[in-house]
Amino acid sequence: MKKSFPYSIWNIEMETMDREVRKSLQTYRLKELVWYLYDNVKFYKDKFNEKGIHPNEVRDIEDIENLPFTNKTDLRDNYPFGLFAVPMEEIVRIHASSGTTGKPTVVGYTQSDIELWAEVMARSLVASGATKNSIVQNAYGYGLFTGGLGVHYGAERIGATVIPISGGNTARQILILEDFGPDIITCTPSYSLYLAEEIEKKNIKMQNLKLKYGIFGAEPWSEAMRNEIEKRLGIKAINIYGLSEIIGPGVANECLEQAGLHIYDDHFYPEIIDPATGKKVKDGEIGELVITTLTKKGIPLLRYRTRDLTRIISEPCKCGRTHPRIDRIMGRTDDMLIIRGVNVFPSQIEEVLVQIEEVAPHYQLIVDREHNLDVLTVMVEVDEKVFSDEIKKLEMIERKIENEIESMLGISVRVKLVEPRTIERSEGKAKRIIDNRKI
Ligand code: DLL
Fold first, then answer.
1. Residue with CA closest to ligand 1 atom 16
2. Residue 288, CB half-sphere, CA atoms under 13 Å: how many?
3. Nearest 5°: CA angle at 218, between 215 and 221?
4. What is the DSSP letter of 265?
5. Bridge partner list, 186
6. Which of 24, 8, 26 is nearest to 264 (CA)?
7. Residue 63: CB partners within 8 Å, gap ≥ 6?
8. How far is Cα 185 from Cα 213, in angstroms, rounded to an integer?
């Protein structure tokens, strides 16, 4: 007899597969992956040899624990294409996100990776309430960032109508919300609140809009923020997770139960480890999420350390999906900030500052949320020699640094020069970041 489920599911076979059967599939796929990496990526072959591991020794998905990790620095060290497993002629798309230095982290997709991505995004959109009849206002940025195109292909895959408006231009977003009547909006959670505020300012009644669901991610948010978004926009707010290195958005997504994000573990195998020891934590404990891409071809990654902190929820979900869930991301193990959806490492800012003659390399980053928009202020000490100069000159230096940072990171920041020796010195790790955002 056919089973019935309380909500629509895109791929019933894979999303509700018996867990033991899925485990066999994961084992099969891991074995293939390990051989594939061994044969096609020198970096992995060397790593296996160093560790004295041979692909033959991987017999079960659980053997994954003996395999080496991959770090963001490995991508940087092999910049730009060194970890690609196929020749460039098979790569059909490149995306990139911030690296810890001025160089971005680069990922390449084969045609089959794009198919896979559309599949997991289709699962995510349907899990979030989208149907073939939906109109999706896609306000994630299009470009090197994976948000825009990821949602786009998933929405097309389910046969919905996509409005590829991309990020920003709030007046136009509101016009389209009113005139095109989308039932779904996709953007960062903070931008959704900014939109709500602008809509309220214009005295537009939410009841007159057709919005029903929002699919929000790319930055951390809380249950409190969800409640506020749902109240102000009059919608159901669904959490979507992903990262460029693994595929982009669509690694994990909540269902309408809103009780953790189903991770599509037939493609992205999750582990939770203690970031200090690298060992698996006990079931249900919080730790660093590590993901292995079981089926990707362009740049498959083994045990990639996401630096995101969460836990696995293994109890079955009421929606009928058998994928395990991850809890909402609770923080990071490194100092990466996400400013208006853009990943920023303090080291990138530092790289700009050290090249500016008029300032000393003592700085602090202050992050605030003003009207639901992130504002990053860079406080940096001026050099003694410049300090006595007239205000106008100091302001010119501030603008110069702002421009440099913007051209390097793609986000606007405020730069404030401060007197020499006013930024607190620390005896240990410098306290570079003051994050005042309450999320
Ligand atoms: O942010 C992909 C994405 C686009 C996800 C659109 C969701 C929606 P990156 O730019 O590589 O990729 O940034 C990945 O963002 O490691 C997390 O720290 C953070 N992040 C992404 N989704 C969430 C979320 C995209 N739902 C990094 N909650 C990840 C908390 C998130 N943090």
1. 243
2. 18
3. 80
4. T
5. 138, 215
6. 26
7. 30, 57
8. 7
Query: For residues 149 and 194, is the Cβ–Cβ distance under 8 A?
Result: no
CA of 21 to the centre of ligand 1 (A): 30
Domains of the chain (ranges; CATH) run 1-333 (3.40.50.12780), 337-435 (3.30.300.30)
Say if residue 174's pLDDT is above 70.
Answer: yes
Counting from 1 in the atom list of ligand 1, the atom nearest the Cα of 244 is 11
Q: How far is CA 2 from the centre of its chain?
A: 36
Cα–Cα–Cα angle for 67, 68, 74, rounded to 5 degrees: 150
Q: Once rounded to an integer, what is the mean pLDDT over residues 199-216?
A: 96
Pocket of ligand 1 (CB under 6 A): 97, 140, 146-147, 217-220, 239-244, 248-249, 306, 308, 329, 332, 338, 343
Closest ligand 1 atom to 189 CA: 26
- Report which of 77, 84, 90 is spatially closest to residue 107, judged by C-alpha positions: 84
Q: How many CB atoms lie within 10 A of CB 36?
A: 19
Tally of CB atoms within 10 A around 383: 15
pLDDT over 80 at 130, yes or no? yes
ω before 68 within 30° of 0 (cis)? no
Which of 329, 340, 409 most suits a substitution to test ligand 1, by most atoms within 8 Å of the C-beta? 329
Q: What is the pLDDT of residues 241-266, one digit of tens each?
A: 999 999 999 999 999 999 999 999 99
